[in-house]
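hey can u check if this looks right to u? its 241 residues, i copy pasted from the old doc so theres a chance i mangled smth
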Amino acid sequence: MIMENKNKGLIVIIVILCFIVVGLVSYIVYDKNVNDSSNTTTSNSNENSNSNSNSNSNSNSNEVVNKKYSVGDEITFNNEKWNVIKESSENDDYVVVLKATELEELSGKPYYECPPEDDNGINCNMKMYNDYNKSVAKKYFDETYINELGKENLKEVDNYYIRLITIEELRELGCDTNGSCANAPSWLLTNNQSWTMSKVDESTQSVYAFGHDMGPDIGELGVGSTLYVRPVINLLKSSIK
């Protein structure tokens, strides 16, 4: 009788233990499913948030890169004002702009500067060039100014990242063959004379210059004259903020 009671007690304990084990297993399975579901929801939410953020960023970036620019549009770059001098369509990744004011570092510089050994000598005058590629401006652009603007912000077009405006571009903007820019936009000229990269002809040492105090707005000056410089750059649209 005693043995029978012990067996019954053992069976009861085993049954209770079984219920406890089943309960623990059920709780663990349930908790895991709840956590997995929560993590999945959070993950999806984060993914959607990141996706929306990336989408908005790409949209804003594309809006800048694909923007169309018209002649005369004003752009701020390098904390300076620039004006568009050539149409730029949605398919162009850069825009050609002229600095609104003169470059202070080259104010009062000649177009061509004689080497020290020929300074103020007759040999210097005989060697002077109206070739833009030998000009003071190009040397400064290539060695100094491009680093200030950041070469990564510019595009090389016709072998130039930075250059001077040409006589042809001045005429496309409204100046005529007589040197008058009366029909040109007001932002094209300043009160100072600035160099162009266009020589007058091969037989002289003269270069075209432009500005309000030229008499006519475009004139011809010798390369030893001291004028001002307004750079033209090929600016990548992705660099415009």
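The chain has a mean pLDDT of 83.
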